[in-house]
Amino acid sequence: MATPFLDSDFYGFAGRLSARESQSIGEIRAFFASEVRPLVNDYWARAEFPHQLIPGLAGLGLFGPEWPETRQFESSAVYQGFCTLEMARVDASLCGFVAVQSGLAMGSIGVGGSEQQRTHWLPRLATGEVIGAFGLTEPLSGSDTARGLRTTAERRGEHWVLNGAKRWIGNATFADIVVIWARDTADGQVKGFIVDTCTPGFTATKIENKLSFRLIQNADITLDEVVVREENRLPGIRSFADVAVVLRLTRAGVGWLAVGNSIGAYEAAVAYARASEQFGRPIGSRQLVQDLLARCLGNITASIALCVQASALLDAGLQRDEHSALTKSFVSSRARETVAWAREVMGGNGIVLGYGAAKPFADAEAIYSFEGTREMNTLIVGRAITGQAAFV
Q1: What's the distance, CA 176 to chain centroid?
Q2: Residues 6+ away with beta carbon under 8 Å from 30
Q3: What is the pTM of this model?
Q4: Which fold has domain 13-126?
Q5: Are 156 and 165 in contact, with CB atoms under 8 Å apart?
Q6: Comparing 44-58, 182-196, 259-273, 362-376, which segment has the lowest mean pLDDT?
Q7: Which CATH superfamily is domain 132-232 in?
């Protein structure tokens, strides 16, 4: 039996999915409804991570569906996007955990790892036996990471020594391994290293008092003479251009995450509009409320369309940096509007966690900034349009 389309998928884009993909989406939807939704607000409010959910997420095949070593069945990038949408409509920050584990940590090894590294790490990451993180952003280097990466890697015989600092590294407080990106002191090129978090000199400190993506345990990392064996260097990473391949795979996925987060707020607003009464009638019968909901649905529909096409290009091997950049920039911007309108439908209740709009409203701010700010992504698109780089 096919999984019913969401009402918020107004044009039925999920009709592109195969029967097996649709079945899997139904399983993810059921798990998030029964296992995640009842507890997620409490964990979000306490800024804690629900570790007990990891085996269930792994069992659904959400870690590494694109790699032959870990996929449960052949699937498309469009399907993987709808997986992200389903997760994010219940909780964007738990979806962010999956994105770090699957897209960034496993993606780095899948793209740049040797056959031995892939065989050793990918299956263990897929089951959740090993938790991974992705260490690129630095305290003094975010948007200018391609040129401004300050963490260094020095070759000493059969080992490398890493020194530097990272910031905003998701999962890092409880990860077993972190893929650290560092600049080789010999040739100046960026290289990737699989670093065991128990290595002397590696320290991860949780970033406290976040107002967004509160389940994600972001950390400041310090690397003080951290020794890594040559066998843990990713041999397929020779420069930042190879890092960009990983980011290209994940950036469009952030668009899907933004859509799912918007849908979560929109669905809560629709339910509220149907149930809440003012002046003797449901507020959903009022023109101004219907206008807000229609605006939300328009943003969601346009955003799904953009995400579907970007993922279809990825399936066809035709996606370029500017495709994923436009998707992320446009969709995350529209998401900010959508969650604000959804909160507006609820009036003062919209800022109370239990009504369903406050959490996506807050989480939209994190989505807007990570995987490249709106401005940086528009410059990637602008370069494609004009042939001129305007980054500095």
Answers
A1: 19
A2: none
A3: 0.92
A4: Butyryl-Coa Dehydrogenase, subunit A; domain 1 (1.10.540)
A5: no
A6: 362-376
A7: Butyryl-CoA Dehydrogenase, subunit A, domain 2 (2.40.110.10)
